[in-house]
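To: structure desk
From: M.T.
Subject: fold request, one chain
Message: Could you run this one when you get a chance? Sequence is below, nothing fancy, just the single chain.
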Amino acid sequence: MKNESPIEMNNVILVDLKGLMKLLSCGRIAAERVGKDSAAIVRVGRRKLYNLEKIKAYLNENAGGNESWVLETLKGMWWIIKVYFQ
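Reply: Done. Structure tokens follow.
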């Protein structure tokens, strides 16, 4: 990525996948999964954007000290971990 300025959360409603990855500090697959699981996908023409309010609500509800949610997410991505560590 080129010299990109950090995203300011004050007025942001929707972000693209790269912005979501940056906000969540995770990779593409994990960011897409969070977006899908939180039902935050908004289509504008051909663009796929993510509603931050829905994502915040989803993370507050499901990730607040709930280790089983993390384990279920990792189980869904087991093949990535398997390929990466081979």
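Reply (cont.): The two ends are 28 Å apart (CA to CA). Let me know if you need anything else for the meeting.
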